[in-house]
Amino acid sequence: MELETPAAVVVRPQISNKRRIGIGACAFLVCLLAGFVPAAAFFSEHGVWQLDPFFMAHYTQSLPASSLNFHSATAVLWTLGALIQVAMGVGWLPRRLHASLGYILVVFGCLAFLSGIALTAMSASPFPKAIGAIAVNHFTAAALATLNMLLAVVRARQKRYLEHAHAAVLCISWVSYPGISRLVGFLIEYVYPFCSLIGFSGWEGLTVIGLAAMFLATCGQACWKSPHSGRKLVCVNLIFAVCIVVNDFSRAFRGGDLLRCSVESDQVWWLTAS
After folding, report:
1. How crowded is the C-beta side of 157, counted as CA atoms within 13 Å?
2. Where are its TM segments located (predicted)?
3. What is the DSSP letter of 21?
């Protein structure tokens, strides 16, 4: 009994941390997918991707359909693969293909992130003169997702698995930003029943605050106590998160539409205006 007690004390926190990381990472990915369900449903019905299908169904999509389809396909494949990867990493599924799938996800991640950056640049036309706060935020999130993904690979190869997990969760949190921000925006639309996502601001800043809180709840304490670079990793990501929040809220204050509808529009899909 005296020999078994210390082992139990050591193992249980590791299992608990893995479970917390797995639940947190899956929560990010599920919310990411949920945020794009309306757009995917609208695409399946009309063959067009829209930011806000509830209010913007009649808008003409200016971005190339082929580019949107490529980005959507690679992003969905990456997200589904990431769910499997997380399940293998925390022990919910056999780990036999964990390393191989990780390298595959790096390839699909680069394709998805780079295509997302390209679409953001296309939307800021003429580029770079038309780059605004939203484009800067999206560029920053894509860069952080890519860097954290590559860092996760490096830490895995160095067999620093705890830091590998933390970098992977940070990557997932930044990847989730576009989908979760839409989910937050759609929920806020119930407060402003005649306002599309482009009719009010602040929902992206609120999303980043939520993402930071979710990450800190998932593995912030373990990151902070990491014996290597975990604390620096958290600080760098939090600094950029604060910059994005300040940038988004500043834009909203300047435009006078911080969580306040500036342009009303009719609901044109699914929901019935009352």
Report:
1. 9
2. 21-43, 75-94, 101-124, 130-154, 166-188, 200-224
3. H
